[in-house]
Amino acid sequence: MSSSSGRPAPTETLLGRAYRAERPGLLRFLRRKVDPDLATDLLHDVFVRALGSADADRLANPAAFLRKVAGNLLIDRARRAARHPAPLALAETEEPAVAPEQGLALEAAELLALYEAAVQALSPRTREVFLMHRVDGQTYREIHEALGISVATVEYHMMKALAAIARAVEPAR
């Protein structure tokens, strides 16, 4: 939908278009990790978190960002579940079952290990740029000034890092 000035309407952001394009794949990913009914709610949370991100308006790869947000959401959910396990109400004759949160916590730990391994596997310069941006919170311009490389090179390293991490944590479709 476009406004009369020919510019995209406010809802037609790069992130919004990426969300609509990636929605089916993100939903499949979430449904493999959690109950299908919960996956739809989590998908909504992915978009809300992505929109609330400080980086939402300057993303080099919005699709990879949305996948990262989905993975982080699962990790956060697993951590919360590990800290506050839901009480199980069992009849005296029932056998205790494995809590679904336990499986989710294992999957989140596995996802985190894949993520960390992917970051470690990056070339030294790409890893340095990625960590400066994602861990230290530096802007592309600040990284450019600190390392003496162009902003375009910073963007290249970030796209390379995000693509490598996405490949590592996203199962083949």
From TrEMBL:
Q: Which UniProt keywords apply?
A: Sigma factor, Transcription, Transcription regulation
The record, for Pfam families, names:
Sigma70_r2, Sigma70_r4_2
Residues annotated as transmembrane:
none
Give start and end of each RNA polymerase sigma-70 region domain. 19-83
What domain of life does the native source organism fall in? Bacteria
**Which spans of this chain does the record mark as coiled coil?**
none
Using the record's annotation, list all stretches that form the RNA polymerase sigma factor 70 region 4 type domain: 115-164
Annotated Gene3D superfamilies: 1.10.1740.10, Winged helix-like DNA-binding domain superfamily/Winged helix DNA-binding domain
| NCBIfam families, sorted | sigma70-ECF
Entry similarity comment: Belongs to the sigma-70 factor family. ECF subfamily.
Q: What is this protein called?
A: RNA polymerase sigma-70 factor (ECF subfamily)
The lineage, from the top, is: Bacteria, Pseudomonadati, Pseudomonadota, Alphaproteobacteria, Sphingomonadales
